[in-house]
Amino acid sequence: SVCPSCLQAQQAKFLRDVENEMEELTVTIAQAKKMVELIKGAATKEREGVEKLFAEASEVLATFQKEVTGFIEEGERSMLGEAEADLRWKEERRAKLAQCKQNLENVPGTDTIYFLQEFQALKVAMEENLSPSLSFQNELNFTKCTQAVSAMKDVLSAACKSQWDHLQGKATDGLSFQEMEEAESRFPDKSNNPACRESRDYFLKFAFIIDLDSDTADKFIQLFGTKGAKRVLCPIPYPESPTRFINCEQVLGVNLMNRGNYYWEVELIDGWVSIGVIAEDFNPQESYNRGRLGRNEKSCCLQWNGQNYVAWFGGFESVIQQPFFHTIGVFLEYSEKALTFYGVKDSKMTCLQQLKVSHLAKGQFDPFQNKINNKFTSLFLCKLKPAFFLESVDAHLQIGPLKKDCVSVLKRR
C-alpha cells in the first residue's frame, strides 16, 4: 500500500506542475493575443495602404489615358481640317476645269472669237495653282499612340508579375532563386571585400556615439532616453518642430557626419526596422511614399522585414539572403563614399551589404547597383545623419552599447 504522506506529496507536486503550466499559458496567451492584434493592425494598415496606392495608380492610368485620347483627338482635328481643305480645293478645281472644257467644246466651229475666249479661260484655269500646302505631309503622328500604350501595358504587366512572384517568394528582384544562385556565381562576392573580413575590434576604432533627436521623432515613436525607440499605437503629444517627421515613423540622430569614418551598432529588439543615413537637408514633411528611408535619393538603409534583409536606395531594393542578426553594425566611410552593413555576433562581422559605386562587368545588369553607380555619390554632397524607420506596429530598437574604453574620445559632433 502507498503511504498517505507520499500520496499527498505527489498530489502537491502535481498541483504545482499544473499551476506552473497555467502560469506559462497565461503568459503565452497574452503574447498570442498581442500577436493576433498586431497581425490585424498590420493587415489593416497594409490593406489601406495598398488600396490607396491602387487608387493612385488608377489615377495615373486614367490621366495617361486622357492625355493619349486628347492627343489623338487634337491630331485628328488639326490634320482633318487641312485634309478636308485640300479635298475641297481639288474638287472645285476639277469642277472648274470640267466646266471650261465643256464650254470650249460647245463653241460653234464658225465662231472663232468665242472659241479663242473659251480657250483662254481654260488655259488660265489650268495655270492656276493655289493648292493649300499640307503641313503634316501625310504623316499621321497620332497613330503612334497604339504602340506607346502597348509598350506601357507590357511594362506594367511585367512589373505586376515580377512583384507578385516576389510577394509569393518565387523570385528576388524578378529572378527565380535558381537564377539568383547563377547570378551570384557571376557577380563579385561581397565577402571578398577586405572590410568584410575585419573583426569587430577593427571597427571599434571608429566607434561613434549616437543620441536620438526627440525633435525629429514621429508622434507614433516613443523614445527611451536617447538610445531606445519603440513604435506605439497612441500618438505622443510632442511639441511642434520643423524637423519632426509627420508622415513616416522615423527618427534621426542629432549627430552630423561629414568626414572620416564612423561606426555604430543597433540592436533589433522587435518588429520591422530600417537602419541607415539621411541627408541633413531632407524635408521631414515628405509624403509616406517619398519620405521613407531608401525610397528617395537623399537616404539609404538596411531593412529587416521579418523574413530577410533588404538594402534600399532611390526606390530600388536588393534582397539579402542572410540569417537574422540581433545586432547590426553600420560603417560609414564618408571620404570613400561607402556605407556597409554588418551582422555582428560574438565579435565576428558578417558583411550583409556594401553601398558603393562598383561598375559591373560587361553583359551584367543589376538595377540596384546601377542606381548606386548613377546617384549614390551625390548623397555625400550633404552632411549625413543616422536615421531609423520603425515600420511595423511592434517595431523596437536600441542603439547598441560599444566598448567603454572607446567611447570617451569618440563622441564627435
Description:
This protein has 413 residues and is α+β, with helices and mostly antiparallel strands. The protein folds into two domains: 126 residues, no CATH class; 216 residues, Jelly Rolls. It is built from eight helices and 15 strands. The strands form three sheets. A seven-stranded antiparallel sheet has the order 3-4-15-6-11-12-13. A hairpin with a 2-residue loop joins strand 12 and strand 13. The longest helix is centred in the first third of the chain and has 102 residues. It is elongated, with a radius of gyration of 37 Å. The chain starts with a helix and ends in a 6-residue tail after the last helix. 21% of the residues are buried. The C terminus is likely disordered.
Structural features:
six-stranded antiparallel beta sheet, seven-stranded antiparallel beta sheet, alpha+beta, single chain, 2 domains, Jelly Rolls, 20% strand, 413 residues
Helix and strand element order: HHHEEHHEEEEEHEEEEEEHEEH
Rg from Cα:
37 Å
Would you tell me the overall average pLDDT? 83
Strand portion, in percent? Answer: 15-25%
Overall CATH architecture of the largest domain: Sandwich
Indicate the CATH topology of the largest domain.
Jelly Rolls
State the helix count.
8
* CATH C-level category of the largest domain: Mainly Beta
